[in-house]
Structure formats: C-alpha cells, structure tokens
Amino acid sequence: METVVLIVGAGPAGLATSVCLNQHSIPNVILEREDIYASLWKKRAYDRLKLHLAKDFCQLPFMPHGPDVPTFMPKNLFVDYLDSYVTRFDINPRYNRTVKFSTFDVSKNKWRVEAENTVTRETEVYWSEFLVVATGENGDGNIPAVRGIETFPGEIVHSSQYKSGRDFRGKNVLVVGGGNSGMEISFDLCNFEANTAVLIRTPRHVLTKEEVYLGMSLLKYFPVTMVDKVVMVAAMARMLVYGDVSKLGLFRPKQGPFATKLFTGKSPVIDVGTVQKIRDGEIQVINGGIGSISGKTLTFENGMKQDFDAIVFATGYKSSVCNWLKNYEYVMKEDGFPKKPTPKHWKGEKNLYCAGFSRKGIAGAAQDAVSVADDIRTILATTKH
Ligand SMILES: Cc1cc2nc3c(=O)[nH]c(=O)nc-3n(C[C@H](O)[C@H](O)[C@H](O)COP(=O)(O)OP(=O)(O)OC[C@H]3O[C@@H](n4cnc5c(N)ncnc54)[C@H](O)[C@@H]3O)c2cc1C
Ligand SMILES: *[C@@H]1O[C@H](CO)[C@@H](O)[C@H](O)[C@H]1NC(C)=O
Questions:
Q1: Which residues are bridge partners to 105 per DSSP?
Q2: Whose C-alpha lies nearest to ligand 1, atom 20?
Q3: Which end of the chain is more exposed for a tag (fewer CB within 10 A), N or C?
Q4: What is the pLDDT of residues 340-379, one digit of tens each?
Q5: Is residue 41 lining ligand 2, measured as CB closer than 6 Å?
Q6: How many domains does the chain have?
Q7: Parent domain of 250
C-alpha cells in the first residue's frame, strides 16, 4: 500500500497529526499495534489516574475543552474527549499493525515500512513520502537490572501494568520510584490496605497541582528562573504550615521545579495525598536503591533488609523508536529522543518527523502535530506533484 504520509502510533500525537493533515487535505494512514486508539489511556493507565495537568494543557488541535469540564480532568473524561475527537474528525487508524522495520529507500526516495498484521500474522509493506513517528515517549516499561531479581517469589509489575491496589490488600508491597506514578500508586496501595513502602532515589520537587498550574501558566509569559522563584515561595509558604517534606525523606533538587523539568526532563511530583500518608506513617519511605534481592528479602543500598510480597516498578519508560526505525538517525538519538532541541525537534531529514517527544505531555504533542502538518503542506506546495 502507498500513501503520502504514514503515521506510526494512534495515541494523542498520531491522532492530532492525522486531523491536522486532513485539514490540509493531505492523504495519510495511521498504523497502530493495539486494537484501539490511545491505548496508553484506554488500556495501560491505572484506575484512579487523574490528569496531572490542567485541562488547558490537555487538549488537541481544533477541539478545546468546554467551560463545564473540570480544571483537573479524571481519566474517564479525557478518554471521552478522545472518543469524541476520533468520531468528530472521523479518524480510522489501521489497527492490529505493529511496525517492525522502517527504512528510507534511497532509489525510490520514499519510506518503506513493514508492519505485522497481528491478526493474520502476515507482514504488510507500506510506502510513503513522509513518515511521522508518534509511538510515544512511553514506549516500553523500564525495569532496572537488580541482582537476584529472578529469585523473588512474589509478583513483579511495571507501573504501566498496574491497575489497582485491590489485588494487594494486606500484602507487603514495595514501590520503586518516587515520581508521579510511584507516588500515586503508593497512595492507591495504601488506600487498599497494603503495607506500602516507597523507594526514592533521586531528589524531586513535590508540589500541589495548583502550584504546578500556577507555574505552567506563568511560563507562558516569564522566564523559568522567575517562575521557579514564585512557585517555590508558594511551596515554602505551604511547608511553613504543614512542615518541611525533606524531613520525611522527600529531598528537593537544588534547581527549581521547572528548571529541573527543563534540564533533566524530571517533572515535579504532584501530590495526590501521598505526603499526608507518609507524614502519618502509613507509607514508609526508603531512600536510595535496591542493592540485591534474595527470595523475599530485599537488601537496600543503605544496608537495610526487609521482606516483601510484591514489587511495583514505577521506574519510568524508554522510547522504543530505535527498535523499529532503522534510519532513526535522521531525527532521533540512540535513546529514541529527538536530536535537535526545541522548537524544531520534530523535523528530521528525508521527510522524517516525530510528534510527541518534547517531554511536554499532551500540549506538546498537539503543538508538534500542528507544526508537522504545516511543514508537510509547505513541502508539498513547493514541490511538483
Ligand atoms: C501514567 C501516565 C500519566 C500521564 N499523565 C499525563 C497528563 O496528565 N498530562 C499530560 O499531558 N501527559 C501525561 N502523560 C504523558 C502522556 O504519555 C502523553 O501526554 C500522551 O499520551 C502522549 O501521547 P503520544 O501519542 O505521544 O503517545 P502514546 O499515548 O504513548 O501513544 C503511542 C501509540 O503508539 C502505539 N505504538 C507504539 N509502538 C508501535 C509500533 N511499533 N507500531 C505501531 N504502533 C505503535 C502505541 O500502542 C500507542 O497507542 C502521562 C503518561 C503516563 C504514562
Ligand atoms: C484486532 O484484533 C482483535 C483481537 O486480537 C480483534 O478483536 C479485532 O477485531 C481486530 N481489529 C481489527 C480492526 O482488525
């Protein structure tokens, strides 16, 4: 099959790119490995997930949220929004297609993409002038190598497979990772009466969602150092009332929260109630990393030993682009993230693009989609067809 633009991935970035291309009447096809669009939101997100960001940062091109939508949308409302988006713009991805291999064919000057049809098990070949990578920053769950992990008799899950604390009631559970997923999963486990411990290795800012919203709104107009000062004043005022969280093992980076995000990609943690549970002694904090595992017993880098029944790895994701995109070097580095800095990160060579890799969530994906479609339109308008 041949088309003008091939998009790999039907998450928010791929869907938005397709909609923007359709607005310019540019033919395009989306290939998606799952049997549904936005699989991260429909299949891989835990039950109690609320969007961490305010609704104005979680919308796609041509369809802003209405005034009656709450500022912080629960997952279901966002999924409903995506459903309406797909229906309204009549987007029809080709489902059950896992892209396995893509190369740029120099003689034809086109992209050649091989996808496995997971229903028939056949390999299908697609050709296109333009290729848009929209497989997401969260391609594969990342589980670090730990000595002795194979001897652990209990359940080991990655946060992307975690659904609810219901299955862990009464068990001793270790959550590895103090980012947004780890802190929220700890909260959820504790609510379901699991004996929960969270292992925190790197310092992180822990803010309220209102403080993050304040910061993100100010960032539109002010430099990041100034925004960080304002947000930290608000956070410090809160800590004067409720106590300093670093006493609880939640250490802060030296840089401000938005500078940290900008320079290291590590988002501030938005507290959903976990801090209160830590303060009340309902959730145990362990600082450092896992040294080794021997059966049920974990030995931590600080020398402490403790037994667990289950481990949840909230240790983030890695981009899986380089596994299937053989000529990734036209747009990506080896880690599957863009070579070029923002704002032109989305544009590669040989008509290769990426959308959704700016570490700016849904708003970033939406912006990329607009930029990519505009660029493709310009190229098509200036070359003879
Ligand atoms: C737990 C969690 C909470 C988050 N909360 C927020 C939030 O509140 N606000 C926010 O803005 N962002 C949030 N994010 C970030 C979020 O991932 C993105 O904003 C958004 O989903 C990115 O969209 P995307 O289309 O780039 O990637 P994805 O949503 O990951 O979509 C990629 C799609 O590509 C498909 N795919 C992958 N590989 C292949 C292949 N080889 N062949 C075919 N198809 C493939 C996948 O099945 C998937 O459907 C969160 C992320 C996680 C993990
Ligand atoms: C995709 O596969 C699932 C099961 O594997 C099947 O139920 C569904 O009908 C398939 N969808 C398409 C569009 O082929």
A1: 110
A2: 362
A3: C
A4: 998 999 999 999 999 999 988 999 999 999 999 999 999 9
A5: no
A6: 2
A7: 144-313
**What is the band of 384 on the pLDDT scale with cuts at 50, 70, 90?**
low
51 close to ligand 1 (CB < 6 Angstrom)? yes
Q: Is 98 in the pocket of ligand 1 (CB under 6 A)?
A: yes
> Where on the phi/psi map is residue 207: left (φ > 0), alpha (ψ -120 to 50), or beta?
beta
The CATH number of the domain holding residue 287 is 3.50.50.60
Q: Is the CB of 356 under 6 A from ligand 1?
A: yes
Return the ligand number nearest the Cα of 368: 1
Nearest CA to ligand 1 atom 50: 361
Q: Are residues 359 and 299 in the same domain?
A: no
Last residue of a domain, one of 269, 298, 313: 313
- 47 & 23 share domain: yes
pLDDT in tens, 308-318: 999 999 998 88
- Atom 11 of ligand 2: nearest residue by CA position: 35
Is the CB of residue 95 below 6 angstroms from any atom belonging to ligand 2?
yes
Same domain membership, residue 278 and residue 196: yes
**Which of 31, 34, 92, 95 for mutating ligand 2's site (highest number of atoms within 8 Å of CB)?**
95
Does residue 216 share a domain with residue 72?
no
- pLDDT digits over 152-182, tens only? 999 999 998 899 999 999 999 999 999 999 9
Question: What mean pLDDT is predicted for residues 43-52?
Answer: 74
pLDDT of residue 112: 98
Instruction: Give yes or no: residues 174 and 285 share one domain.
Output: yes
- Alpha-carbon distances, residue 338 vs 31, 89, 122, 321, 364 (angstroms): 21, 29, 31, 10, 13
Question: Across residues 101-117, what is the average pLDDT?
Answer: 97
Let me know whether 45 and 119 are in one domain.
Answer: yes
Instruction: Say if residues 267 and 180 touch (Cβ distance below 8 Å).
Output: yes
Give the closest ligand to the alpha carbon of residue 37: 1
> Is residue 32 within 6 Å of ligand 1 at its C-beta?
yes
- What is the pLDDT confidence band of residue 94, given thresholds at 50, 70 and 90? very high
Query: Does the pLDDT at position 184 exceed 70?
Result: yes
Is the shortest distance between the CB of 20 and ligand 1 below 6 Å? no
Say if ligand 1 is within 6 A of residue 65 CB: no
What's the CA gap between 189 and 194, in Å, rounded?
Answer: 5
CA of 361 to the centre of ligand 1 (A): 9
CA atoms within a 13 Å half-sphere pointing along the CA-CB vector of 284:
11
What pTM, to 2 d.p., does this model score?
A: 0.86
> What is the rounded distance in angstroms from the CA atom of residue 28 to the CA atom of residue 3?
6
Tell me the average pLDDT across 186-195. 97
Task: Measure Cα distances from 18 to 12, 63, 248 in Å.
Answer: 10, 14, 46
